[in-house]
């Protein structure tokens, strides 16, 4: 193990967290794209506010948060790792779990139009629960089915948004 020694009169430079700068860059890109995308929306003649207002606000707000995060990071305002969640920092990241979750999400994205939201949502819930350590597959599938069917009906009946029924077309 090595120890870091500093001379008593040496000024300390603020520690820069590259992950925070990366997050700020991602926020800036998302904010700029949202703002740009709002310019491509068609505006109706009789709309007093129009559909552009909220994307402009969200895009500008996201970009502003990116700038504030860069300023805070460059000033050395870095959160302490120990003060975060209850995690063991001596253990490496569990990439198997992360990749399993990414795989389940990718499967859902690829199959939601064919299988429909009710089936894909149940698989998404059960697969995510399994990736995070649950081994009660039947219960997870049932809970996922109840949640996805309930959300499908909520979107369809209450919000008027048509989600794909997929293979359950005519049943739902």
UniProtKB/TrEMBL annotation:
InterPro entries the record matches: DUF1468
The organism encoding this protein is Nocardioides gansuensis
The record lists the membrane-crossing segments as 20-41, 53-74, 98-125, 137-155
Name of the featured protein: DUF1468 domain-containing protein
- Keywords, sorted A to Z: Membrane, Transmembrane, Transmembrane helix
Could you read off the lineage of the organism from its UniProt record?
Answer: Bacteria, Bacillati, Actinomycetota, Actinomycetes, Propionibacteriales
Q: Does the keyword Membrane apply?
A: yes
Please state every residue range assigned to the domain named DUF1468: 24-163
| Protein origin, superkingdom | Bacteria
